[in-house]
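// run 5 | inverse folding | seed 20
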């Protein structure tokens, strides 16, 4: 389970730019893709159009507390004028994300699992 133990300490950073500007050892922002030999998202990241707020803190065996952490992280992005894009998590992830919004919103949900088959009583 990825979570707080494997992430940098973002709470000690002064703001999103300190912990979310991915910079190479040359000081260039963005992400380098070695398969094509070029850097992506330089402009967007150097102008703070895209930031990565990291993982929400997961509290094993405490669903309510974990959901509170997820809601707080999404609310943080919203309070700074951001548009959250949430990746990962299980089917329950939508609830704590949506409750951070005070305005109507649209949800695009991608599910990579093959569990969309209709249930038929008496048939596996």
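// decoded
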């Amino acid at each position: 389970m990825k979570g707080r133990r494997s992430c940098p300490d973002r709470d000690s950073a002064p703001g999103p730019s300190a912990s979310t500007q991915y910079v190479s050892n040359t000081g260039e922002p963005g992400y380098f893709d070695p398969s094509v030999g070029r850097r992506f998202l330089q402009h967007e990241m150097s102008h703070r159009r895209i930031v990565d707020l990291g993982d929400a803190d997961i509290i094993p065996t405490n669903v309510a507390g974990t959901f509170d952490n997820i809601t707080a992280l999404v609310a943080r992005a919203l309070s700074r004028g951001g548009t959250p894009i949430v990746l990962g998590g299980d089917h329950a992830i939508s609830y704590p994300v949506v409750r951070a919004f005070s305005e109507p919103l649209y949800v695009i949900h991608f599910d990579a699992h093959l569990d969309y088959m209709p249930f038929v009583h008496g048939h596996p």
